[in-house]
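haha ok so turns out i had the wrong file open the whole time. this is the CORRECT one, sorry everyone. sequence first:
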Amino acid sequence: MMLANRERLVGNSLLWFVAAIWGGSYVLMKMVTNAKMPAGMINGWRGLVAAGFIALLFPKKLRHMSSHSVKVGLIGGVITYVAFQFGTIGLYYTTPANNAFLTATYVAMVPFLAWLNHQRPRKQDFSSVVIAIIGMVILTNLARTGFVLRLGDLLVLVSAFFYALQIVYYASTATTVSPWVMVFWVSLVQGLGGVVYSLLFERQAWPRIEWQAALPPLLAVALLVTLMTQLLQIYAQRLTNATAAGMIMMTESLFSSLFSVLLGFDHLTWSLVIGGGLLLLANLISQFDFSRLTH
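then structure:
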């Protein structure tokens, strides 16, 4: 029991670190988009750089991987790519607040998908999900601005479903293969998918890209976010459950807001304090072992 609790603590701590890196990466992504690089090209570069880095450092792992590892990696890559691409396209047809809130609804889908995968949620998981959703409504100011369903919102909901599917997949099937092999295939699929999308729909934007300004932050995103955080996420999810992972990683929006305040892009608001506080409360409820109180 002590060992299991220690492993869960390590896994959850790593996921908090991953969420913080994701939240902070918005600053780097903003630098890339300001340099006029379109989404498909960004996705392509991120994936191919990360996959190439693994291929250079660990060629033996890739040469000796089994057909099972290839299959698991490809499925994980398709799930991750669909989640990212639908979310990116949806953002063009909805508001940033709607996008942030609807993307975070994956936390409500994870317990049910995990249940279908024979991982029965606890009662407190459902309570924490409700509190987290309320926290996101406040954090994104939807309570004040209102919510109108648009085409982009439906696309973002599809993205949220695949993010939830990714978390459950990483907590179950993906644990059977090496994290390095898994991230290689996920990154490769993401990279090739991004390149194909850019070739089909973004070629007119290529001449406007400011490469000198775009490449440094893009390389940082590829190695820090695409490569490192995916490795940490896959490893961490072997030590904790899918619902806890989803609860922690949805705080990406909270960390993004906090970094924006710290760097002077935004001001500290009551919606950030109250909404962020509810997200932290939801995580505490999700991770606390209430069975101890009955002994």
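The radius of gyration is 19 Å.
again sry for the mixup
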